[in-house]
Amino acid sequence: MTARTLTTGLVGALGPTSTGTRPLAPRTGRTDGPARVVIDLDLPGTTISRHLYGHFAEHLGRCIYGGFFVGEDSEIPNTRGIRDDVVEALRALRIPNLRWPGGCFADEYHWKDGIGPREDRPRVVNSHWGDVVEDNSFGTHEFMDLVELLGTEAYVNGNVGSGTVQEMSEWIEYLTRADDSPMAALRRANGRDEPWKVPFFGIGNESWGCGGNMRAEDYTALARQYSTFVREHAGNQVTRIAGGANVDDYGWTEALMKDAGPHLPYQAISLHNYTFAHSWEEKGSARGFSDEEWYSTLANAARTEELIARHSTIMDRYDPQKKVGLVLDEWGTWWDVEPGTNPGFLYQQNTVRDALVASLHFDGFHRHADRLIMANIAQTVNVLQAMILTDPDSGALVLTPTYHVFAMNAGHQDARALDAHVLLPEEVAEVNGRALPLLSASASVRAEEGTALVSLSNLSADEPRTLVLDLRGRTVTGHEATVLTGASTAAHNTPEQPDAVAPVPLTELREHELGLEVTLPPHSFATVELRLGE
Description:
The protein has 534 residues and is of the alpha/beta class. It contains nine helices and 31 strands. The chain has an eight-stranded parallel barrel, surrounded by five helices. A six-stranded mixed sheet has the order 4-21-5-26-30-29, with no helix packed on it. The chain has a six-stranded antiparallel sheet with strand order 20-24-25-31-27-28, with helices on one face.
């Protein structure tokens, strides 16, 4: 581990905003006793939108074809070509939304190529991802069928880079209009009578890069124009999401927010940030990594919260009422592809390290739920930090460690955030110039149900952590704890060993005069569910 200790006892410099201060990182203080996480159970804060647990499915590698969609003639059990086991696994997560068709693919996707009889649909080149030819057998109707099977909500990403205003306007009409308009009639001719609901619509993707290599001021003008023509038909209320910044391009956010006011035609802006061991140029291996790379990855993951805070600070200045939401619609780990696989398909294994990257992100999301209204992990099946891996030969389905973090954290969806103040007996480590407390926590409460959920991450590669949950404001009448870890930091699941990393009951939990005492194994994520009295 390349690390040194900070001389200060407080991590997280505070950045000024128009409404006060916004922490750039979790506030972590010092204590002379054992580690503590102080939670005031009677002081609920902002609602944690369920949409912070959103997902992303792009026409990339084996995410759509061979992941979600196998075709009706497949021997794998399916419903109208959509894999039943994938649907079952994702329904168990209660996924709140699914973004499609991209990603970079969105800005070369022409939606009319993907409607009508499949045998009549044109073949197209996916120039961004593997330079492969696809047959458009998975299009608008198939995606909306998937949305309905999942019981989720649609986030459709439109084409600004190579599309037209008319094309985008007609797509939302096709999807959501109920009467006999031209596009509604076309939808009926293709077999769907009733319109769908599409609550989220993206105005292009990564327009600073693969979506057109635009300058901020040029895209801002297009975002206003294209958003205007994403109409609300038949009572369908749509959140229009302008394509936002890459990582720390604060000028891009500034350009989008300058005209913020009552007539801004989009209701949210996006942000993209991926996590690597080192850098974009030197991503690192998904499985073969050192302790140094373990810590550098987690420190880089923690940076996401700083980015959210800094972009939010700009938004606060122009929009103090928070009418415009921030959407982190691409996040997660990006490693070198698995050896022997197509480099354009972005297939990677998923280890305990990925799980803790996810838990760190969620802790930050919960703390910034006043501005962050949605987040979408990249991507759901077989691509980057996936929930699910499917074996191309046997067809076997594997749930990844990241899947289990989503499942264990599901109780935070639409609950009220609680401040979780982490107090550590040691000074905080600095990894490659970035502060990294080796304990992370967040919490939420459902006051009307008398329950609370606490999430805890032990980021130490090799040391267990005993801590005290200092629970204040309400009595705790019962508790149940679950832990996720593996035999090593690189432990992962395979068809042969599907439960090498899987949740199990956490037995190292004891009553304490302040609340509960918990011992976390090394490299672990845990949740503690609390039943509350008065």
